[in-house]
Design goal:
9-stranded mixed beta sheet, Spore Coat Polysaccharide Biosynthesis Protein SpsA, Chain A, 3 domains, disordered C terminus, single chain, Serine Threonine Protein Phosphatase 5, Tetratricopeptide repeat, 19 helices, alpha/beta
């Protein structure tokens, strides 16, 4: 392979199974910068093997042992490069990052790099985390964990025994991950597999905080069993020394998830306590400020709730730390602020904050319907009618919105218009939408 400068050899290591839909893009993103492609297949039946044979320098076909680390380590053992780049088949390296990645291999004292992995989520949002994906090939560097496998523990051991080595984060080298964009059936199968492997891992090592947290997420932290595992993980995390907690890449998110659950289960004091600890150990975050706002609201501390909610709304969403749709969170903040102002009897303020929210998220049914309802409570029917009509012109007829607009028309002294809205509502099932509002409505 031709390069602009002499550098160490780089091996791409992958494990695959039935990846025919995405593997080509993954390989194409890096095949011009790697010296060899090492692929371990764990049982493909969809034509993946034929594709792999076109590109792989080395290919192994092994049986799946319900152990991601085992398969990863097989690929590492087959590699011959000085450095290893690990990608999954549903990931690809952004082309503009290739040069920076290659230059990073020149540093003599570097053992490993954390790269930015951007998880693309359904709903149009993404979050970034920074796992170790680029590291030197050494016999002592191994993956650990049947699932959510990591190479970091062995990297730390190498650096501990040889202080001359160090690691760094390449924030500008971005790997795009599209695996969370799976269809319903694929997500369901993946979830079942993950729960099985995580459960087995915890049977072998009940003290594994990270994988207990991941199990809580797979089960759903809002469920009783998910909340049970989340609580155990949090208690175990908080028993660690502060410095060790700070070193846990998942610590911030675990605390934030727990705080959200405490608030959702009407335990505001615990939610505020955990949010404050997370802020002191890591950093402030819109999720934590929202949790504090909601918790203060539950405690009837309206002044503190208003302060925290406004802080959350003003914050810039930082990379990493939380798996959460930032747009959905901002909608929740707008809704909470409107409830606070409504409880204070400041209906104009409640309407203004919801108008701001609708301006930012014109497609939010939650914000539009809340605006209409508060306008009705405030005896301002024209605001309700305008909001409802504007929503339905863009999004189609909506039964609930039609009935609210009928109520607004009646309040405004237009019974004929109200009757027309109600007549339309009778012909619209609650779950149906029409693409455009009928002319003249």
């Amino acid at each position: 392979m031709d390069t602009l400068f002499t550098r160490p050899r780089l091996s791409l290591c992958m494990i695959v199974r039935d990846e025919i839909d995405c593997l080509q893009r993954s390989i194409d993103s890096v095949r011009d910068i790697v010296d060899e492609i090492v692929i371990v297949d764990t049982g493909s039946t969809d034509g993946t093997i034929d594709l792999v044979k076109r590109y792989a320098s080395k290919l192994a076909q092994i049986s799946w042992k319900d152990d991601f680390s085992y398969a990863r380590n097989v690929s590492v053992d087959m590699a011959t490069g000085d450095w290893i780049l690990q990608l999954d088949a549903d990931e690809y390296l952004r082309k503009e990052c290739c040069f920076d990645l290659l230059r990073s291999l020149e540093k003599q004292d570097m053992l490993a790099y954390n790269l930015a992995v951007r998880n693309q989520r359904e709903g149009g949002y993404s979050e970034i985390f920074f796992p170790a994906r680029l590291f030197r090939r050494m016999p002592t560097i191994r993956y650990f964990g049947k699932i959510h496998e990591q190479v970091t523990p062995s990297l730390l051991e190498v650096m501990k025994s040889n202080p001359g080595w160090r690691s760094d984060t390449l924030q500008n080298v971005v790997i795009e991950h599209q695996g969370y964009m799976l269809g319903h059936k694929e997500r369901k199968n993946k979830k079942s597999r993950n729960i099985r492997l995580l459960t087995r891992t915890l049977e072998e090592d009940p003290s594994d905080i990270y994988r207990r947290f991941k199990l809580a997420q797979e089960l759903g932290a809002e469920t009783d069993i998910g909340y049970h595992h989340l609580s155990i993980a949090l208690e175990a995390l908080l028993r660690l020394p502060e410095q060790e907690i700070k070193e846990k890449a998942f610590g911030h998110e675990l605390m934030g998830n727990a705080a959200l659950r405490f608030a959702g289960r009407n335990e505001p004091q615990k939610a505020i306590q955990i949010s404050s600890i997370a802020e002191s150990l890591f950093s402030s975050h819109p999720v934590l400020s929202f949790v504090k706002a909601l918790s203060h609201y539950l405690r009837k501390d309206i002044g503190s709730a208003l302060k925290s909610a406004n802080e959350a709304l003003a914050m810039v969403w930082p990379p990493g730390a939380f798996v959460c749709n930032p747009d959905w969170l901002r909608e929740d903040i707008y809704l909470l602020l409107s409830r606070i102002w409504q409880d204070k009897g400041e209906y104009s303020q409640a309407i203004d904050i919801l108008r701001k929210g609708v301006g930012e998220f014109p497609g939010s049914e939650r914000l539009v319907q809340s605006l209409i309802r508060i306008a009705l409570v405030a005896q301002r029917p024209l605001i309700a009618l305008n909001a409802g009509a504007r929503w339905m012109k863009s999004n189609g007829l909506d039964k609930e919105c039609l009935l609210l607009c009928a109520e607004a028309a009646e309040m405004h002294g237009e019974p004929c218009c109200a009757a027309r809205w109600r007549s339309l509502a009778r012909g619209v099932p609650a779950s149906d939408r029409y693409t455009k509002l009928e002319k003249g409505v």
